[in-house]
Amino acid sequence: MGVRLMVVDDHRLLAEALASALKLRGHRVLAAAAPAAGAAELVITRAPEVCLLGTATPEEPGIFDPVVRIKRERPQVAVLVLGPVPNPRGIAAAFAAGASGYVRHDERIEGVERAIMKARAGEAAVAPQLLQAAFSELLNPAAQPDDEGQRLLSMLTPREVEVLVRVADGEDTRLIAAGMGIAPSTARTHVQRVLMKLGVGSRLEAAALAARTGLLDRAGPVARNPGPEA
Fold it and tell me: Collapsing DSSP states into helix, strand and coil, what is residue 218?
């Protein structure tokens, strides 16, 4: 008997190809693609038996937040994560969020279908060696290494951190200078130093890098209380 499924992935071609293959095998696919930001809402609304949720970055913090919400509001829905070859921490994070299993993007359709059937039956749908590594990580979590945001933050002086926060807020050189009580030429020099230290070529790139690595979240207290100008 076919399974009521949803395939949710940012990559439309991948999602539609998988959905088509599963339809040919007798399954009812309710949706084929959606951005990650809207995945939870879509699944909660449609309430499939099994959802295949794609991700390209299983180790990224918060990547499985949609799984948490789905399981909270639709606990009967089994969520299978589709992703690249993971490390144990990524697998552990998926299970900790409530996923029923993890399937590699390059898995054959027969393997995907076996995982779907296991998930619907309430079983863990993941290769035994990956499952063992994931449980080991859950029971004995490894110390988190210094993340990229912290590494980048350590390269900047308190004054440069304040400049970066202002750049990310969209302030131009004139506003940065006025807000910090410095000359525009000094503000311009600070901006150039920030760009150089971060290894980017523009203010937009600097703001994007800071947001992506969580540097801005860490910079908040520092930026509010900048040290003496360096």
Answer: helix
pTM of the model: 0.58
Q: Is 114 helix (H, G, I), strand (E, B) or coil?
A: helix
Residue 125 bridge partners (DSSP): 101
- Report the alpha-carbon distance of residue 128 to residue 144 in Å, rounded: 25
Distances (CA, A) of 34 to 77, 84, 95: 17, 18, 22
* C-alpha closest to that of 1 among 125, 94, 122, 116: 116
Band the pLDDT of 211: cuts 50, 70, 90: confident
Q: How high is the pLDDT of residue 221?
A: 47
116: nearest Cα among 9, 19, 13, 40: 19
Amino acid at 108: R
The residue type found at 214 is: G
